[in-house]
Design brief:
By secondary structure, the protein is mainly α. The protein has 7 helices and 2 strands, in the order ααββααααα. The chain is globular and about 40 Å long.
Length: 168
């Protein structure tokens, strides 16, 4: 395991579009991977025991950081009109997607929302949803950890299944 691989796994995990949904396959696969917006990048061929701790810890820390930083970041960046319009669209979409989960199931719903490895869900959107819906830090922290573990388990299972061929 090289520092280069660790750096790129952390970088991909921090990126809002990629998060662990792309960093786990990037770390585990040992072949070229076509990534949206970036192009083709070679997988690192690392073991699960090397990739998962890096990616999971990075994603959890990202969520906890975002929870506290969002208020400042929103006030700072929405001064720019283009970003304000974009932010308002993201707010509407986030509230539409996450609010039913959070209202019905509370922190468990937020964990499920974070854990569903689909575009538009994840730690970035989950932290924004918690911020917008006024979820307390303790509930968000639990939801963040559980959601990241759910997403990591699902993405790892699919990645290893595709890598090794599904055997039923």
């Amino acid at each position: 395991m090289s520092l280069y691989n660790i750096f790129y796994l952390v970088l991909f995990t921090l990126a809002p579009v990629f998060e662990l949904r792309w960093s786990i396959p990037l770390g585990l696969w040992n072949k070229p991977i076509d990534l949206p917006l970036i192009g083709t990048i070679n997988g690192f061929g690392m073991s699960v025991f090397e990739v998962l701790p890096i990616v999971v810890i990075t994603n959890i820390l990202l969520g906890l950081f975002l929870y506290f930083a969002l208020d400042f970041l929103v006030r700072l960046f929405t001064r720019i009109q283009y970003i304000k319009v974009l932010y308002n669209r993201i707010v509407e979409r986030t509230q539409r997607k996450a609010k039913p989960f959070v209202e019905k199931y509370g922190a468990v719903g937020l964990a499920i929302f974070i854990g569903i490895p689909l575009p538009g869900s994840g730690v970035w959107t989950g932290a924004l949803a918690a911020y917008l819906l006024g979820v307390c830090f303790r509930d968000f922290a639990i939801a963040c950890v559980v959601g990241v573990l759910i997403a990591a388990a699902m993405v790892t299972a699919v990645t290893l299944g595709l890598l090794n061929g599904f055997a039923f």
